[in-house]
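Hi all, posting the design record for the shared folder.

TITLE: backbone redesign
STEP: 1 of 1
STRUCTURE INPUT:
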């Protein structure tokens, strides 16, 4: 409880709030965090049958060699994210009065869905709600309004989108493993917004990091880098890996944010 009070006090005294989030942020909304092979295979039993873990399946080569499998995986995730309601913790963060920016490795669009401004978010690994050419033939990115139908028995997409420019198969604008074809244009624009926001910081900054693990430490590294640059206070909320912060809280996102809100 001391950590909760300390976190609430730090947030209350802050003028700026940087929210950094990994897959653990969405768990309380019912989204899988794919932690370890077993966690991934629980979400996708067919992948276990095929002997594919998350890293093997989240690879752009499948769009070349088996697009029906690639789009079964990403189409299923797209449908899941579209049907998911962000948990109460998102609203608690949104209603905090400080100037806020979000930096996330999540590709699910849940922050936008919860009401956060599109201009105050970096989705460093891209977003499933945007498409690009698999080649890519250009740096064109467009909104993903596709309805992907999937045969879950065979784990095959029955349809998938095509590039508007060249007619090749399209793919989500997501940075995958071993991916040299990710179009960075949208992320670059988000990073420009982020850097502009950082350059205006003239008073106390607090970083609230939620559900960011060590396996792919992009978010953790960003939190720590900004903390060091701005002499900020880092609150790390993570039920398994909360170490290395000024305030470490070893619990889940929704529970902690609800508890913090009672002291604000």
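Okay, here is what came back for every position:
SEQUENCE:
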């Amino acid at each position: 409880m001391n950590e909760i009070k300390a976190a609430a006090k730090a947030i209350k005294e802050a003028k700026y709030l940087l929210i950094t989030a990994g897959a653990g942020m969405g768990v309380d909304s019912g989204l899988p965090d794919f932690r370890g092979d077993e966690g991934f295979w629980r979400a996708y039993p067919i992948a276990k049958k095929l002997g594919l873990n998350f890293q093997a399946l989240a690879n752009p080569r499948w769009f070349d060699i088996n697009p029906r499998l690639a789009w079964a995986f990403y189409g299923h995730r797209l449908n899941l994210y579209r049907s998911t309601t962000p948990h109460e913790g998102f609203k608690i963060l949104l209603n905090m009065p400080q100037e806020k920016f979000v930096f996330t490795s999540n590709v699910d669009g849940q922050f936008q869905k919860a009401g956060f401004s599109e201009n105050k978010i970096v989705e460093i690994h891209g977003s499933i709600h945007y498409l690009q050419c698999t080649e890519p033939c250009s740096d064109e990115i467009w909104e993903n309004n596709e309805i992907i139908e999937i045969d879950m028995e065979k784990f095959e997409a029955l349809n998938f989108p095509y590039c508007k420019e060249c007619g090749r198969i399209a793919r989500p604008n997501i940075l995958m493993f071993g991916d040299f074809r990710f179009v960075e244009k949208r992320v670059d624009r988000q990073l420009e917004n982020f850097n502009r926001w950082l350059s205006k910081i003239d008073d106390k900054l607090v970083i609230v990091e939620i559900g960011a693990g060590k396996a792919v430490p992009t978010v953790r590294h960003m939190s720590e880098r900004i903390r060091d640059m701005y002499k900020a206070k880092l609150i790390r909320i993570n039920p398994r890996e909360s170490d290395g912060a000024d305030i470490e809280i070893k619990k889940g996102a929704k529970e902690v944010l609800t508890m913090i809100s009672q002291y604000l």
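COMMENT: The mean pLDDT is 94.
Let me know if anyone wants the other runs.
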